[in-house]
Amino acid sequence: MPDILPATDRIDSAIARIEAAIDARAHDAEKLSRRHAALKARMAEAVSALDEVIARESAA
C-alpha cells in the first residue's frame, strides 16, 4: 500500500514550502534593494564628477 500523507500533513508541507518561498523572495528583494542603492550612489558620484569636468571646461 502506498504511503499517503494525511491531508493536514500535506497542507503543513505546502505551507512550509510557501513560507520558504516568501523568505527567499524577501531575501532576494533586500539584496536587490542594496544593489540598487549602491548603483544609485555610484551614479550620483559619476554625474557629480562629470558636472565638475563640464564646469572646468566652461570656465576655461
Roughly what percent helix?
Answer: over 70%
Number of helices in the DSSP assignment: 1
**What's the count of strands?**
0
Overall shape: it is: rod-shaped
Strand portion:
under 5%
**How large, in whole angstroms, is the Cα Rg?**
26 Å
- Specify the biggest β-sheet: none
Distance between the termini: 89 Å
Mean pLDDT: 93
Q: Element order, helices and strands? A: H
Question: What would you say this structure looks like, in words?
Answer:
The protein is mostly helical. It is 88% helix and 0% strand. It has one helix and no strands. It is rod-shaped. 0% of the residues are buried.
Short description:
The chain is mostly helical. Helices cover 88% and strands 0% of the residues.
Secondary structure elements and their pairing?
Blueprint: H1 7-59
Q: Could you name the key traits of this structure?
A:
rod-shaped; 60 residues
